Amino acid sequence: MLESVSASSPVKKRRIDTSSDNSSISASGSSSSVVQQRDMASGNSNGQEIDEDLHSRQLAVYGRETMRRLFASNVLISGMHGLGAEIAKNLILAGVKSVTLHDEKEVELWDLSSNFVFSEDDVGKNRADASLHKLQDLNNAVIVSSLTTSLTKDHLSAFQVVVFSDISLEKAIEFDDYCHNHQPPIAFVKADVRGLFGSVFCDFGPEFAVVDVDGEEPHTGIIASISNENQAFVSCVDDERLEFEDGDLVVFSEVEGMTELNDGKPRKIKSSRPYSFTLEEDTTGYGTYVKGGIVTQVKQPKLLNFKPLREALTDPGDFLFSDFSKFDRPPLLHLAFQALDRFTCEVGRFPVAGSEEDAQQLISIATSINTGQGDLKVENVDHKLLRNFSFGAKAVLNPMAAMFGGIVGQEVVKACSGKFHPLFQFFYFDSVESLPSEPLDCSDIAPRNSRYDAQISVFGAKFQKKLEDARVFTVGSGALGCEFLKNMALMGVSCGNQGKLTVTDDDIIEKSNLSRQFLFRDWNIGQAKSTVAASAAAAINPKFNIEALQNRVGAETENVFDDAFWENLTVVVNALDNVNARLYVDSRCLYFQKPLLESGTLGAKCNTQMVIPHLTENYGASRDPPEKQAPMCTVHSFPHNIDHCLTWARSEFEGLLEKTPAEVNAYLSSPVEYTNSMISAGDAQARETLERIVECLEKDKCENFQDCLTWARLRFEDYFVNRVKQLIYTFPEDAATSTGSPFWSAPKRFPRPLQYSSSDPSLLNFITATAILRAETFGIPVPEWTKNPKEAAAAVDSVIVPDFEPRKDAKIVTDEKATSLTTASVDDATVINDLIAKLERCRHNLSPDFRMKPVQFEKDDDTNYHMDVISGLANMRARNYSIPEVDKLKAKFIAGRIIPAIATSTAMATGLVCLELYKVLDGGHKVEAYRNTFANLALPLFSMAEPVPPKVVKHRDMAWTVWDRWVLKGNPTLREVLQWLEDKGLNAYSISCGSCLLFNSMFPRHKERMDKKVVDLARDIAKVELPPYRHHLDVVVACEDEDDNDVDIPLVSIYFR
């Protein structure tokens, strides 16, 4: 395991725990035998450590068991053009045991259009050998080797999965027969990318066990009632909608009264509704339901019977669709790829781009094959489509390779692990809409002896020039950004004299990035992402004109990304990971009328959205509903799931170790200003803040490590004993609400106080870790004896814990709408003054240079004790409320708000976006040609649809959308603006700039402003600052038409320079 690079803590540790699993995989019986046999065949590496710092985002998707299976898997990839390289990249990043690269051919200049590991120096070398070292650099934990001789069936037995991206159908059938019948079966994948067409075929053997079909956590519900009847009716609390489906199996737990259901036996349900379902069981003779209970979905393994390629060609079953506007396309492409294989076998080469003779021969072959297909016969063979297919058949395009590299990479992971549902069995795709809108001349697609020849053969040299001269802004250089930069370097985007790509990212490289942000290496940790990514992308294509910036894109950097910058752009490509930044970039693209290509990933899911001026709605036009937040009282007093416990734990961690020390420092740095601000506030929050500071510097001030240990031990007592005693004293188990119903009814869980014992390692570890971080805030060294459990236990046991008596007047917030747990008091101001006096006394007892060291939460450093404290806090609280506990890794995912991420979905998303980039840079496509996509590689599911057009507003003979902006030049006066609008039949009754009103027809004094320049009004009234780089300002105008109906008009830009 590589050492962690963070140095935020004075004490470091190295621990890896692979004993428990956060995965939802629960295979049982013979259904998992296939996967188990494969593990044994590869010398199962279950003992191998998982580097959680490196693979945390991937672990959040796969879980430990899947990762272990990947670590045990050997994969062969045959065919090292662009598609082979993309598949290899994704698998090496994922961390399989070994990848063998096979190819007998030599690198040609043609290959540089799609393979990111080749350079011009590699031309003439064997493709597998030339790929070896750069792919090995991606992950030194994976054994990467090359094979350059002819492949035989004997070679295949050393692998769990074999992937072919450049093989004849005859040879593929021969190899697949061998793999299908091998014991254990060897998973076989055949993938092809030909121009703008692609195909995948999977055969994982006669019986393949899928142990987790979708990768989602099992759904749960909190029971409110269960009837005693045949086909029992079960209702659940309306805290959250149930996600069950008819036919699901569920198990019950914690049911009181009807305890017969707690036997762990899976039961089938039906008539599933948002908050209820029917149980297919007679509960007439069972005990009467009293209260409580959790119902949990049981995920079922699935057995798939794959056909060998030989059979599947003539009996393919259902094709996997991606675009339902092309419902008839897969059978035709099934025919086209067979025809192409026969053409290459007969002629000994691929069809030549632009050759009508070759195209007609391929169409003739396809027609011949179709005639003998029986039930599979395609009714209407589209000659135009086959002609396009023929013209691009030799070319491997980078966007297609990236997209299919993601799909195939994920299928290999499925084959190795049984995690997620495999592609069953054929998938075909095309993006003919990406072709230039104008017909291509044969001379335009002829080779130029250029690295872009493959792409030119499909799109033409004139279009290539458009790519090279594009001025692109890529926002973000993380996982998506790295893939985009690689793709665009290979495509030649911004590689001409007029072209330029600007990439910006204010983040630095961390170890956890390396498992998917493939342009980075371990020696880049700590460096700026954009700088390293730009340098690596320029190494892929030395002609790439790329500039790297480290600026966040937002209102605060409009002096960097000014009007001239935005106006000079051709297109913007977002590679962001948060909605607010996306909305800001969207607003800028909307304002300057620039195309925006948007995408995002979440685990195995990805989506793309095309935002095209005047053709589509903008990104901000539709938004996902906000995530449901648990009420504050639930988190603090009535948790009923581990998420609540972890939310509380993170809040307490930040309050104790970051916010309070930071407040202490703020006070010590400027005592007078700080106390004056508290007096001015004079509220309950100010009082509570001062109480925490006084407590930290007086009662809880630590002078040595034993003080820190004492503080931590008393914190444990306060959190998990005293607070619970107070809660159940205020609300006993038999307490009732004002309506007479039980107070402790679902979803509330009645808590029990904990009892500390040093013999419980989890309690001792929590107190020790908390004490270590407390010591860090005070700059106190940590003694060596803390590493000795016996000495640490003795030190903790020596702490005197005072007795606790619950208070009768304690106030506990139960209102779910409450936003604060601190209640205001009439004497807050008096208390604040007393606290300030205490603070002054504390300050005089401190040395002038005393400052605390706030601890900022860092989830990705496993040596800093942060997650030990947070997971300890959460699990102790869960123990109070009888909520199942979680391991530290799962706690990190939830408390650290880690976004699950894998290389495969990222690669697919960027490939899809770059297919749309062709359309954007061509400039002649209609909205029907564009595609927005949602995909889930786990299922797998691909859903493509035309973008939604923008809403059109009409007035008289005019029409406009959100994309329009009205421009008024010549530095006009207010009167001139009003007249300009009146000429359009619009009566403007209000004009505002920012939040200030420049004019309103109801205010008589505003008529005095009529002959003033609008820009002067903005300066004088709205106090707008107009730096030299600004040439205009924007005003919002409220208008009515002749019939006094409000008309929503575009933003009006007043140019004053």
Brief rundown of the structure:
This protein is an alpha/beta fold. It is built from 30 helices and 31 strands.
Give structural attributes.
7-stranded mixed β-sheet, alpha/beta, 1057 residues, disordered N terminus, 15% strand, single chain
Topology:
Elements: H1 33-41, H2 52-71, E1 74-78, H3 82-94, E2 98-102, H4 127-136, E3 143-147, H5 153-156, E4 161-164, H6 169-181, E5 187-194, E6 197-203, E7 208-210, E8 220-226, E9 233-236, E10 249-253, E11 267-273, E12 276-279, E13 294-298, E14 302-304, H7 309-312, H8 329-347, H9 356-371, H10 383-391, H11 398-417, E15 426-430, H12 453-459, H13 461-468, E16 471-475, H14 479-491, E17 500-504, H15 529-540, E18 546-549, H16 563-567, E19 571-574, H17 579-592, E20 596-602, E21 605-611, H18 632-637, H19 642-669, H20 671-681, H21 684-697, H22 705-730, H23 761-778, H24 789-797, H25 828-844, H26 866-880, H27 888-895, H28 903-922, E22 932-936, E23 941-945, E24 953-955, E25 958-960, E26 965-968, H29 974-982, E27 987-993, E28 996-1000, H30 1014-1020, E29 1032-1040, E30 1046-1047, E31 1051-1055
Parallel strand pairs: 1-2, 1-4, 2-3, 4-5, 16-17, 16-19, 17-18, 19-20, 26-31
Antiparallel strand pairs: 5-6, 6-15, 7-14, 8-9, 8-13, 9-12, 10-11, 10-13, 11-12, 20-21, 21-22, 22-23, 24-25, 27-28, 27-29, 29-30, 29-31
